[in-house]
Design brief:
The chain is mainly alpha-helical. Helix content is 61%, strand content 6%. It has ten helices and three strands; from the N terminus they run αααααααααββαβ. The longest helix is centred in the middle third of the chain and has 25 residues. The two termini are 30 Å apart.
Length: 211
């Protein structure tokens, strides 16, 4: 478990957000996946590694996040090892305390045989159909237009700049009030978009940039 986390840590350290983006593309909503994982890390810091393995999604994202944020290797190993020990220990204790119940469940599954296989097969097919539906639903996000930074700079230097609004939507943790940003841009908090968009102009082209 720790060996796999160390590998993801170094991959995150080298690739940064590229690896996080790839992992989150496997989820229903990549933007929400990254924001949710990063928010855990920003709020709790290194302590996230202590309980990350108990939370689906966060367990995969925490090691590369730690790497991308340049956490010291010694700190990562210490907290990740403690987290792995807690995870394995919790399930070992649960297995010991409820061993009789687990044996009864195992005997029941063996006796059920083909019925259990049928239930599993139906569940698997239902999950695959659901994932296909989710993928088709969120594929519309790929239609969001993007432009390179050079093109944005060219437009800002032209007369079109009067009709443009630049918004900084970096996640908290990667943004602070004293950090540099594009001249003339405004700050939008990505976790408060419902309120933020109420104050945006309707007659300007809006360009967003993040980390």
């Amino acid at each position: 478990m720790i060996a796999g986390d160390v590998l993801l840590y170094f991959m995150g350290r080298v690739s940064g957000w590229a690896l996080l983006g790839f992992l989150c593309r496997l989820s229903a909503n990549p933007e929400t996946c990254i924001l949710r994982s990063a928010e855990y890390f920003y709020r709790r810091g290194k302590q996230t590694l202590l309980f990350a393995k108990f939370i689906p999604g966060i367990n995969t994202m925490s090691p590369p996040l730690a790497g991308s944020m340049k956490m010291r290797m010694g700190d990562f190993l210490q907290y990740d090892a403690l987290g792995a020990a807690l995870y394995v220990g919790a399930y070992s204790v649960a297995g010991y305390l409820f061993s009789d119940a687990l044996r009864a469940i195992t005997r029941g599954l063996r006796s059920a045989g083909s019925a259990a296989e049928l239930v599993f097969a139906v569940g698997l097919v239902a999950y695959v159909v659901y994932r296909i539906w989710v993928y088709r639903k969120y594929r519309l996000l790929d239609a969001i237009p993007r432009i390179p930074a050079e093109e944005l700079a060219r437009r800002l230097a032209s007369e079109a700049a009067q009709n443009m609004l630049i918004a900084d939507v970096r996640s908290h943790g990667y943004y602070d009030a004293h950090s540099e940003r594009i001249a003339g841009s405004i700050r939008i908090e990505p976790n408060n978009l419902i309120e933020e968009v109420k104050h945006l102009p309707k007659d300007q082209e809006i360009y967003l940039y993040c980390t």
